[in-house]
Amino acid sequence: xxxxxxxxxxxxxxxxxxxxxxxxxxxxxxxxxxxxxxxxxxxxxxxxxxxxxxxxxxxxxxxxxxxxxxxxxxxxxxxxxxxxxxxxxxxxxxxxxxxxxxxxxxxxxxxxxxxxxxxxxxxxxxxxxxxxxxxxxxxxxxxxxxxxxxxxxxxxxxxxxxxxxxxxxxxxxxxxxxxxxxxxxxxxxxxxxxxxxxxxxxxxxxxxxxxxxxxxxxxxxxxxxxxxxxxxxxxxxxxxxxxxxxxxxxxxxxxxxxxxxxxxxxxxxxxxxxxxxxxxxxxxxxxxxxxxxxxxxxxxxxxxxxxxxxxxxxxxxxxxxxxxxxxxxxxxxxxxxxxxxxxxxxxxxxxxxxxxxxxxxxxxxxxxxxx
Length: 371
Fold this sequence. Notes:
alpha/beta, 8 strands, eight-stranded mixed sheet
């Protein structure tokens, strides 16, 4: 027995068919969803990996690299170091000084000692491109010890003799501590000027290093923290566009003190700026950050006096108004190392060696023991 026949309109039939078709197209088979998820995950990983990889360096003298225009020596590991010489000829020099340049700089950013003082005291001044900067080859295995050993080998290649002086500025000042650690037997004296400090060095009280760390811009806290804790992300962090990277790389103007701003035009108008990172940003500024804010095997706070018989001296200079490198860490180092001659300049910022007469004062304090 059949029931009543229900009439279904054509419109209702079409609507029912459309809903079924829509539902069928929206829901994918579970196996296919898993496969798509795996593909998307692999794609994301591949994209992320590609994003954090630095571009290959363009080595000076290579077919696609910048030309070699400077004097260079070849190190025993095959790398080249580029250098420049000023002052009196080394054969006639009474004093021989090796200058260590700072972050995002090169051999031409040498401390501006007056020609008159160079001649008067008989000073030979050697400045070089640190690894990856200018025309010096990158050093893929660079550590906190590397530059000190490069300096020693450079001095030997150029026949500077058994002992020489060093002057390091900013990040070059930080490297000055490594010279006192690894090649103290080669030093006649050292001037460490406005040195960068690694906030994670052993011996700093945690509250002090935290206070210094917090004096930075937020963007620099991130940039420095990544260089220390996740160095493999350093290149990506400082080249991505979502968040600001290091303010020092971008030369954020409000990161300089009032005194620095008076000197800044001389620093910013360097005609050779394009040469500084010409082999690649990763092998120059980013690797510099990774090493100098990385995990060190020693701390400057643990150093012994390299001149126990007063045959040389170490001078630490810092401006009290330095907004780039907090002065409080240099103060603490000078208190823990009583053999360091500490000079704090009350109104000076980070660029004070560029002020008239300041570089001459630094050199006289280093070379003239009774000055």
